[in-house]
């Protein structure tokens, strides 16, 4: 009888070798270990065995059963590991240095407003220029018709370096270099970070952003200035805006203006946002002073142009309803990651 046990054991080992997947393994398990399986049928042979051999036969069958179980389990583990590996191999490989989806960053609100404006001006034929943050006195002031000791400098105190250079107080500081680079005719905007020696509060910062724009050509007039400003602002706020000009003084423009827009919140009736005046001061601008054109190598007899200095930071505050200017430089992810491009 023990020969039969050995035979079944041999058959099992061979069959196990041939099994290639979990389904085959399960079939084999049923074949050997189910109630009517081969191991159970050996047990039923017990009654045909002489009494003195019963014990050792029973033991051997039990040993076989344990062996079959153990070998099946081991093979199952092998097959499962191989299946897992095959799945990994078949899956597209990924770059584990990429950030997790949940951590994808967002743009700073100033960047969003800046990019939107750049697109608008590009579509109107302007180029977008980059410029320095550390400039010299000539570019920041003298080339803009602000000689030394001119009182207009008082409003633009800034941070000076030991070598006499300074952190630019306005994007107008790039006007001279851009005029010299391209000559006339010229349409360009130049966004940039500006600095002033200010005590900070909810509406004042020592570091803020502007976007300057200049357009120089033959016969450029105030009507062109109004048209471009109105078109651009209507795009930014996604509605028709009404603008008005008030006189404003800047040595590098003549005449100079403060451009206001009709309050977008109350429509001009007066509300706390516009301090009940119905208008919001938005953008200083004017016709470029002949001296400034001359400094830039452009003949004011032949060409004229307008310039404007949009407060990007201010615009972002208005567009997103940000009440405290200090939010922008705080580096708070909570505050700055709430904004999305439109
Ligand atoms: N540069 C001026 C400022 O920052 C703004 C301005 C720009 C005014 C262009 C007129 C024309 O105060």
Question: What's the short story on this structure?
Answer:
It is built from eleven helices and nine strands.
Describe this structure in words.
There is one protein chain. The chain has 342 residues and is of the alpha+beta class. 40% of the residues lie in helices and 18% in strands. It has helices at 2-18, 22-33, 38-44, 51-90, 109-123, 137-140, 175-182, 222-237, 290-295, 312-320, 333-336, and strands spanning 127-128, 134-135, 166-167, 186-195, 207-217, 243-247, 253-262, 279-288, 304-311. The strands form 2 sheets. Strands 1-4-5-9-8-7-6 form a 7-stranded mixed β-sheet, sandwiched between helices. Strands 2-3 form a two-stranded antiparallel ribbon. Strand 6 and strand 7 form a beta hairpin. The structure holds phenylalanine.
Which helices and strands, and how do they pair?
Elements: H1 2-18, H2 22-33, H3 38-44, H4 51-90, H5 109-123, E1 127-128, E2 134-135, H6 137-140, E3 166-167, H7 175-182, E4 186-195, E5 207-217, H8 222-237, E6 243-247, E7 253-262, E8 279-288, H9 290-295, E9 304-311, H10 312-320, H11 333-336
Helix pairs in contact: 1-4, 2-4, 5-10
The structure holds phenylalanine (PHE).
Phenylalanine (PHE) binds at residues 170, 172, 250, 253, 256, 284-286, 307-309.
- Describe the main β-sheet briefly: 7 strands, mixed
Low-confidence stretches: none
Number of strands: 9
What is the number of helices?
11
In order across it, which strands form the biggest sheet?
1-4-5-9-8-7-6
List all distinct small molecules, including ions and cofactors, that are bound in this structure: phenylalanine
What is the string of helix and strand elements? HHHHHEEHEHEEHEEEHEHH
């Amino acid at each position: 009888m023990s020969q039969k046990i050995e035979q079944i054991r041999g058959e099992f080992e061979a069959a196990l070798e041939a099994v290639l997947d979990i389904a085959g393994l399960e079939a084999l398990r049923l074949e050997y270990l189910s109630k009517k399986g081969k191991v159970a049928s050996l047990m039923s042979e017990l009654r045909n065995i002489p009494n003195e051999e019963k014990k050792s036969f029973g033991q051997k069958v039990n040993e076989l059963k344990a062996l079959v179980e153990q070998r099946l389990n081991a093979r199952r583990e092998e097959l499962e590991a191989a299946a897992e590996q095959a799945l990994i191999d078949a899956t597209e490989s990924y770059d584990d240095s990429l950030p997790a989806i949940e951590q994808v960053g967002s743009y700073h609100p100033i960047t969003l407003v800046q990019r939107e404006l750049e697109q608008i001006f590009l579509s109107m034929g302007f180029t977008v220029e980059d410029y320095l943050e550390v400039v010299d006195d000539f570019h920041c002031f003298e080339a803009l018709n602000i000689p030394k000791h001119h009182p207009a400098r008082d409003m633009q105190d800034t941070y000076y370096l030991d070598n006499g250079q300074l952190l630019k107080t306005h994007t107008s500081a790039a006007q001279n270099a851009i005029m010299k680079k391209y000559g006339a005719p010229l349409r360009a905007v130049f966004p940039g970070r500006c600095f002033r020696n200010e005590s900070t509060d909810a509406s004042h910062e020592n570091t803020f952003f502007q976007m300057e724009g200049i357009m120089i050509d033959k016969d450029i007039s105030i009507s062109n200035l109004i048209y471009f400003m109105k078109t651009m602002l209507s795009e930014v706020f996604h509605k028709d805006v009404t603008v008005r000009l008030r006189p404003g003084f800047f040595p590098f423009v003549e005449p100079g203006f403060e451009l206001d827009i009709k309050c977008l919140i109350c429509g001009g009736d007066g509300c706390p946002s516009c301090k009940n005046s119905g208008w919001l001061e938005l953008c200083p601008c004017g016709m470029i002073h002949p001296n400034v054109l001359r400094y830039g190598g452009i003949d004011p007899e032949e060409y004229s142009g307008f310039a404007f200095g949009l407060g990007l930071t201010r615009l972002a505050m208005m567009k997103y309803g940000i009440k405290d200017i200090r939010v922008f430089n705080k580096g708070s992810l909570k505050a700055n990651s709430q904004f999305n491009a439109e």
